[in-house]
């Protein structure tokens, strides 16, 4: 679908249109000094595209709340809500494609930056299923993406700048089309301004701002003087959604009005000096002193505000119920899968992986980290029935956590009368590649009195567990040692 937005007239008196679909793909930067008509331009753009695309306005001065009366935008008074509530609203806004105005007027500069960062971050992090096209308009963008550090904390500045950078640099793939407006290009972070492909440059007077505007418009520095001569409401426009060459656009009229307007001259009062003194110094009336102040309008709770732009969600069906024995069997299988893929990853990461697998397989319960550590050691040692191995596990509790798996492997081999595990096998269970470290580990366990090692005359090793009365069958500790004499004879 192609939609044209009438922005006004060009220098030849012809209609100047903006291709909305192209604008959503290429983003827009608006620049102009205070009083140049920058907010008027944004209002014309929002009114022209209302009903065609979802609109999200970040409004630091409360100038765009009037859109709610004419076009049904939902106004959110940010000062009345916490940051988690703001983020939750942003998630629902993307889900239900509501057009909103986030009014930041009641907040200090740092509060505005924190609120905008939380709001934009939640818009950016929405699930892929909710990546619908949305026009995100940010007025006074130099507040949220400053080029240099100011009086606000570094934490707030980094969060706000990061959110604005994500909007302009990576938001397109998520359906977010950034439209940013600033009074001064020199105060706006360059990595935010550079991502826009469409430009509307209004009147400015500082040389540094004119030079940057001329660079963005592809004009020579000596031509930048024309930017200083622009009248209020006139903008130089360039970009794939507007024109391939810079054109002069005079912005048309708008249907809604801003809460604040430029000051106008009005006649002074005609009261005489004596009357004016009486008005200024007259004592206050008793009834005025006793009259209670008007009660403020009640603030709607966040949940109630969210319900104004969200449809009732469909109920989530319950997961199929499993028998306890089925859950135990499946949990054992998942533990074995995690143990096989463990590698050198830390236990905490493996625990998160295990919990995710449990949720993916529909398990209604899981286990704590302590229990997981014990069960993982048993699984890596080849033991699937933890209840039958409570005594060896209790003995291994006296060892460091990383030695529990090799100790249980020795116990399993001793109980079954199997050959003693080799040094390379013990090293693998010890999560190392060094057989020497495995031998030092065995010496440590033997010093604890948990095992007794014996090497016969043929070089085969057997290990006993005195507390349990179990002993492994003799086996060569290092299988590579048997070929070493042969290699020596070949060398000689």
UniProtKB/TrEMBL annotation:
Gene3D superfamilies: P-loop containing nucleotide triphosphate hydrolases. Residues 283-302 are annotated as: Disordered. It comes from the Bacteria. Pfam families: DUF87. Residues 10-71 form the Helicase HerA central domain. This is Helicase HerA central domain-containing protein.
């Amino acid at each position: 679908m192609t939609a044209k937005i009438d922005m006004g007239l060009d220098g030849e008196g012809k209609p100047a249109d903006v291709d909305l679909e192209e604008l959503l793909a290429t983003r827009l930067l608006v620049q102009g000094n205070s009083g140049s008509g920058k907010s008027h331009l944004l209002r014309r753009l929002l009114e022209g595209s209302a009903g065609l695309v979802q609109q999200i306005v970040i409004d630091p001065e409360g100038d765009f709340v009037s859109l709610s009366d004419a076009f049904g935008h939902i106004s959110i008074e940010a000062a009345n809500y916490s940051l988690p509530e703001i983020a939750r609203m942003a998630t629902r806004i993307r889900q239900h494609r509501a057009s909103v105005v986030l009014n930041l007027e009641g907040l200090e500069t740092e509060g505005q930056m924190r609120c905008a960062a939380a709001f934009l971050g939640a818009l950016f992090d929405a699930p892929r299923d909710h990546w619908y096209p949305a026009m995100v308009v940010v007025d006074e963008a130099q507040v949220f993406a400053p080029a240099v550090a100011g009086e606000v904390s570094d934490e707030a500045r980094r969060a706000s700048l990061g959110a604005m950078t994500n909007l302009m640099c990576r938001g397109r793939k998520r359906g977010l089309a950034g439209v940013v407006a600033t009074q001064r290009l020199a105060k706006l972070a360059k990595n935010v301004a550079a991502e826009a492909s469409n430009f509307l440059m209004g009147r400015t007077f500082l040389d540094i701002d004119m030079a940057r505007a001329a660079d963005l418009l592809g004009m020579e520095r000596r031509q930048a003087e024309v930017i200083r001569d622009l009248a209020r409401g006139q903008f130089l426009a360039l970009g794939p959604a507007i024109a391939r060459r810079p054109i002069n656009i005079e912005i048309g009229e708008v249907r809604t009005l801003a809460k604040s307007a430029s000051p106008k001259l009005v006649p002074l009062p005609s009261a005489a000096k004596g009357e004016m003194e009486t008005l200024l110094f007259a004592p206050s009336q008793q009834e005025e002193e006793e009259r209670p102040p008007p009660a403020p309008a009640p603030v709607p709770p966040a949940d109630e505000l969210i319900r104004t732009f969200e449809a009732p969600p469909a109920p989530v069906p319950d997961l199929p119920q499993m028998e306890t024995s089925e859950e135990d069997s499946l949990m054992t299988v998942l533990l074995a899968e995690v143990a096989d893929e463990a590698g050198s990853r830390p236990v905490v990461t493996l625990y998160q992986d295990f919990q995710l697998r449990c949720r993916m397989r529909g398990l209604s319960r899981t286990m704590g980290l302590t229990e997981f550590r014990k069960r993982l050691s048993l699984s890596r040692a080849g033991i699937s029935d933890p209840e039958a191995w409570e005594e060896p596990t209790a003995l291994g509790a006296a060892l460091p956590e990383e030695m529990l798996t090799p100790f249980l492997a020795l116990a399993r081999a001793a109980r079954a009368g199997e050959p003693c595990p080799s040094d390379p096998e013990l090293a693998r269970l010890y999560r190392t590649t060094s057989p020497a470290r495995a031998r030092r580990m065995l010496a440590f366990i033997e010093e604890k009195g948990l095992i007794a090692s014996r090497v016969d005359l043929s070089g085969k090793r057997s290990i006993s567990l005195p507390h349990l009365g179990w002993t492994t069958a003799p086996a060569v500790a290092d299988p590579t040692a048997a070929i070493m004499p042969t290699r020596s004879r070949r060398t000689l």
